[in-house]
Specification:
Order of helices and strands: EEHHEHEHEHEHEEEHEHEHHHEE
Shape: globular
Largest sheet: 5 strands, mixed
CATH superfamily of the largest domain: Thiolase/Chalcone synthase
Helix content: 25-40%
CATH class of the largest domain: Alpha Beta
Radius of gyration: 19 Å
Strand order of the largest sheet: 1-7-6-4-5
Number of domains: 2
Structural class: alpha/beta
CATH topology of the largest domain: Peroxisomal Thiolase, Chain A, domain 1
CATH architecture of the largest domain: 3-Layer(aba) Sandwich
Number of helices: 11
Oligomer: single chain
Distance between the termini: 20 Å
Number of strands: 13
Bound molecules: oxa(dethia)-CoA
Length: 325
């Protein structure tokens, strides 16, 4: 059975930046509160009407170039998103057209903030069973399109962005050493957007911000720390490694306090922790691949590094992975 490795990565965010000072003008909040409770200083927000698949295409093109792979070699495109351009077709198909991946099969997965590792898990399995040689996993979110901009509990947290990796057969020691995914639908109402086929939107819904993110922040926080810890422990066990073997940990970039709690549980010194939440906010599924690509491009994560990743999101979903670059 072939295993797979990351051949190249890329990320893209919208140009427009929304700072905490900007948010102070929009809702009853303060720069100090946002930084203390979340660590976020700014987030990138797409212009209204812009397309998430364009952002995803930008990230994929970078990843393809770094992987020395042309679009027509891609066998499969998996897009992890809960904020696709349209209800259907899948954003993966829109992306396929934009990058010219003519022979690829393409589909979306919905696992909220855990989507990227869910995508890796699927890609790894399908590369083993279908003998795919080149698979693209993209995680892209435009949560700004479903944020209630009058709700200070949620509107300060999220940002837009896309991150992508190109996977190919593993060579040498490099590879995706382990992945693990979990869900618990019993807690679906802790974090959700009710818009969907169960409720056809009315004009009043638009005025009432019906089709937006609802979150019980405290409860989500509690589950996040426990689940992310469990997921990384499980991924380490599957890889036959311990936390001391990791060169870096990339936690889901939701909130600095969650990240600090994870660091404490795994006794991670600051230099081993990849954190960029202060500049991007919570970009949901895109947060781990954006952080991974940034750290590779700025030389922090080098060839041969062993990296643990752990994430958590709506569903509830959670997932962990260990990769060797
Ligand atoms: O990818 C997963 C996505 N979700 C998450 O990661 C969210 C996880 N949860 C969190 O990160 C935290 O729960 C938050 C950052 C959302 C909130 O922090 P908290 O320490 O749990 O605050 P809280 O919700 O308990 O609210 C404390 C107070 C409340 O006021 P009162 O009732 O004590 O008077 C809130 O109304 O802070 C108030 N508050 C704010 N104040 C200023 C809530 N949001 C804001 C705000 N600015 N933006």
């Amino acid at each position: 059975m072939q295993t797979c490795q990351i051949l190249g990565s890329g990320h893209a965010v919208p140009h427009r930046i929304l700072t905490n000072a900007d948010l102070e003008q929009m809702v009853d909040t303060s720069d100090a509160w946002i930084i203390e409770r979340s660590g976020i200083r700014q987030r990138h927000i797409a212009e209204p009407g812009s397309s998430l698949s364009d952002l995803a295409a930008d990230a994929v093109k970078q990843a393809l170039e770094r992987a020395a792979t042309s679009a027509d070699e891609i066998d499969l495109i998996i897009v992890a998103t809960v904020s696709a351009d349209m209800k259907f077709p899948a954003m993966a198909c829109l992306l396929q057209e934009k990058i010219g991946a003519t022979k690829a099969a393409a589909f979306d997965i919905s696992a909220a903030c855990a989507g990227f590792i869910y995508g890796l898990h699927l890609a790894k399995s399908l590369m083993q069973t279908c003998a795919y040689q080149r698979v693209v996993v993209v995680a892209a979110e435009m949560l700004s399109s479903m944020v209630n901009w009058t709700d200070r509990n949620t509107c300060v947290l999220f940002g837009d962005g896309a991150g992508a990796v190109v996977l190919g057969p593993a060579e040498g020691n490099s590879g995706i050493l382990s992945t693990t995914i979990h869900s618990d639908g019993n807690h679906s109402k802790l974090l959700y957007n009710p818009a969907g086929s169960q409720h056809v939107l009315t004009p009043e819904d638009l005025n009432n911000n019906f089709a937006t993110i609802n979150m019980q922040g405290r409860e989500v926080f509690r589950h996040a720390v426990a689940s992310m810890t469990a997921a990384l422990n499980e991924a380490l066990e599957l890889a036959g490694l311990s936390a001391e073997d990791l060169d870096f940990i990339i936690p889901h970039q939701a909130n600095n306090r969650i990240i600090e709690a994870i660091a404490k549980r795994f006794k991670v010194p600051p230099g081993k922790l990849i954190v960029n939440v202060e500049r991007f906010g919570n970009t949901s599924a895109a947060s781990i691949p954006i952080a991974l690509n940034e750290a590779i491009q700025n030389g922090t994560i080098k060839k041969g590094a062993t990296v643990g990743m752990t994430t958590f999101g709506a569903g509830l979903t959670w997932a962990g992975a260990v990769i060797k670059i």
